[in-house]
Write a structure and sequence with these properties.
The complex is a heterodimer of chains A (220) and B (243). Chain A has 220 residues and is an all-alpha fold. Chain A has a single domain (13-162, 175-218), classed as Arp2/3 complex 21 kDa subunit ARPC3. Chain A is 70% helix and 3% strand. In chain A, helix 1 crosses helix 4. Chain B has 243 residues and is mostly helical. Chain B folds into two domains: 2-120 and 211-238, no CATH class; 124-199, no CATH class. The radius of gyration of chain B is 21 Å and the shape is globular. The chains are: A mainly alpha (220), B mainly alpha (243).
């Protein structure tokens, strides 16, 4: 639900290039941290990333779907959770679902949710049962992801203050007010994000509650 | 979305067109040329011409144009809020944004619809850490293992009235129950896959296929198209049609 879903050619080049570089740096760091992991961590990463793709078939109205990112983050942990977000976004980008150039930014936004979910869950578990703790962690991780998205849009406004300018057919240049358009985008999208956060929290509570009953050893 | 992936995989695996026979690297070069045009060209007419070129390529590749266009248009639904927020009262701005999105999506769809996934991910696995490169390959493979199970779960939930499709809290709790079972299934599958990899002597790298770099005369087709697109962008630059 907090996917960027902005296509190629919309954001300023320095922004998406920066996103790709930051993503590459984080992927390199996570790969180095997990360099001695057994191959079963790789197969688990792949299985849960595939489940994220499958979960995206659950619709949340006409403009949204589940991301399942918080649950995958709780189950995989911060590093592998971030890699799962990168893998999912890469596959989606190849299907034309989110631009290839904005893969880095998409991965950072979704990865913010997967990477922060387990720390929030651990914190919430000190006071709550697994299911409600997962709901709290899901909302907190979703807010981190939305904050990352806001940061991307703020950077877009700062890097391209004149917005999208082009020569119109009558020869005059029309310019969109980028700062105003960012505000409009936030105003349009915020209700969807709030609904998405609530939906992810309900699903996270349900899944983690179920796992706590049947296979508690899978939970951190 | 799930059926889209299966559909694209069928197109990639069953086609015999010139695009299917070209190497993954030359098609990636064509994709890079299209993306270069998408991020630089400002003129909606030129972007429309690129879209037409891509539709023609899809037809040459014998990829069903209708479903491929629908697949490429699907992300526009999600980008619509962004496009609306950027509207400045002219038709050019939304047209430019929509055509850029369409061109990028069509180019990506052309690549994946004509390239089997081992060839698609092999060059990426060469330049990325093992966890990411092999993760891409195994995720795509695992997705197909999960696809039918997930479809059956959603069908069962719908038939029993568990999913009304309106995103109600009750729907979401039921979807969570279904996803919980899929999580268990995913854990078991990942365990089995690991054991299979061990038995087959997994050496630390999953994808060793080299077809992606197997160049033939047919590779001149995507490479020539890439040159044409880049040359078109250069010509437009001189005429002031860029950002």
């Amino acid at each position: 639900m907090t996917h960027l879903h902005i296509a190629d050619g919309v954001l300023p080049v320095p922004l998406w290039l920066g996103g790709l570089l930051v993503m590459a740096g984080l992927v390199g760091f996570v790969a180095w941290r997990h360099r001695n992991d057994r191959a079963d961590r790789l197969t688990l990463l792949a299985s849960l990333a595939a489940l994220m793709l499958a979960a995206m078939a659950v619709p949340l109205g006409p403009l949204g779907h589940l991301s399942f990112a918080p649950v995958v983050g709780i189950l995989l942990g911060s590093g592998l959770g971030f890699l799962a977000a990168v893998v999912v976004n890469a596959i989606l980008a190849f299907l034309g679902h989110g631009g290839i150039t904005v893969l880095g930014l998409n991965a950072l936004v979704l990865g913010a949710a997967t990477a922060s979910a387990r720390p929030f869950h651990r914190l919430a578990r000190t006071r709550l049962e697994p299911g409600p703790a997962a709901a709290v962690a899901s909302i907190a991780a979703g807010l981190v992801s939305v904050a990352a998205l806001w940061a991307v849009l703020a950077c877009a406004s700062a890097l391209e203050p004149a917005g999208i300018a082009h020569a119109a057919t009558d020869g005059h240049a029309h310019e969109a007010d980028a700062l105003g358009s960012t505000g409009r985008f936030l105003a349009f999208a915020s209700p969807f994000w709030l609904l998405g956060l609530a939906a992810e929290a309900i699903v996270a509570a349900s899944v983690v509650g179920f796992l706590a009953r049947v296979r508690p050893e899978l939970l951190p | 979305m799930n059926s889209d992936v299966a559909l694209v995989d069928t197109w990639a695996a069953s086609g015999r067109s010139p695009f299917h026979r070209a190497s993954a690297l030359s098609k990636m070069a064509f994709l890079a040329a299209i993306l270069f045009a998408v991020v630089t060209v400002q003129d909606p007419v030129a972007l429309g011409a690129v879209a037409l070129l891509l539709v023609l390529c899809l037809a040459v590749a014998r990829v069903p144009v209708g479903p491929a266009l629908l697949l490429a248009l699907y992300p526009l639904l999600f980008s619509s809020l962004f496009v609306l927020s950027r509207w400045d009262g002219t038709w050019q701005t939304p047209a430019t944004l929509v055509l850029r999105a369409l061109d990028g999506s069509l180019a990506a769809v052309l690549l994946v619809a004509t390239t089997p996934y081992p060839d698609l991910f092999a060059p990426i696995a060469r330049v990325t850490p093992r966890l990411l490169g092999d993760g891409l390959f195994l995720t795509y493979r695992a997705f197909f293992g999960l696809l039918h199970r997930a479809e059956r779960t959603w069908t069962a939930l719908r038939l029993r009235g568990g999913l009304s499709g309106r995103g109600l809290p009750k729907d979401l709790r039921h979807a969570g129950d279904g996803l919980g079972q899929l999580v268990l299934h995913s854990y078991d599958r990942s365990r089995r896959l690991y054991e299979v990899m061990q038995i087959r002597g997994h050496s630390g790298r999953v994808c060793g296929c080299r077809h992606w770099a197997h160049f033939t005369a047919i590779d001149f087709l995507p490479l020539a198209l890439a040159v044409v697109v880049v040359a078109g962008v250069v010509v437009l630059t001189r005429n002031g049609g860029l950002r």
